[in-house]
Amino acid sequence: MQGTVVAVSLSQTHTFSKYLSGLIRLKARWGVEGDAHAGTTVKHRSRVAQDPSAPNLRQVHLLHAELFDELRLAGFQVGTGQLGENITTRGVNLLALPKGARLHVGREAVVEVTGLRNPCAQIDALQAGLLAAVLGRDEHGGLVRKAGIMGVVLESGEVRAGDPLRVELPPEPYLPLERV
Q1: Residue 53 sits in a domain of what CATH number?
Q2: Any stretches that span the bilayer, and where are they (predicted)?
Q3: Could you tell me if residue 79 is inside a domain?
Q4: Strands 2-10 and 19-21: what pairing?
Q5: For residue 29, what are the domain limits?
Q6: Residue 88 dihedral angles phi and psi, to the nearest 5°
């Protein structure tokens, strides 16, 4: 599976949205250099309140640009970085990847997929009704989280819009993604 990086974003503070950047630097075992969510232990405020020593499984947030297409068709005006993602992609069904898949991003960076992003009520502050739009139900009635995936950085490297994205699947049996 191959795709493309559409945009890269970061924020030095704990803002909901992130700011578009010409490039981001991924640092092994750390995350996106200069981003508020980088580090070896949890940085998301609700997770820090629960256990500040827990490992950071949310160093990098990746979101598929196809979600923006879907949201536009539903009447929302949402652009890259606004949902808090660091890397916006196109051409790979991120939500269908198994836990442990490795994403080779750009020339050197490697991100291991840890799970699904769990969208929270803050998303409705961006636009009313957006939370419901990024959640769905599968054929069995189970909740489907469409707000992207999270990962940890295994190999450092720079990432820019236009860079290739290649998926390396883990050994079978594949484990489905769960919220992290």
Answers
A1: 2.40.33.20
A2: none
A3: yes
A4: antiparallel
A5: 2-168
A6: -100, 130
Tokens of 32: 């996106």
Per-residue model confidence as pLDDT tens digits over 41-86: 999 888 888 999 999 999 999 999 999 999 999 999 999 999 999 9
- Note whether residue 173 is domain-resident: no
DSSP secondary structure code for residue 91 in this structure? S
Backbone angles phi, psi at 96, to 5 degrees: -90, -5
> Is residue 176 a contact partner of residue 45, using CB atoms and an 8 Å limit?
no
Q: pLDDT at residue 99 above 90?
A: yes
With CA atoms as reference, report the closest residue to 75 among 129, 24, 118, 34: 129
Band (120; pLDDT cuts 50, 70, 90): confident
Closest CA to 62 of 102, 30, 28: 102
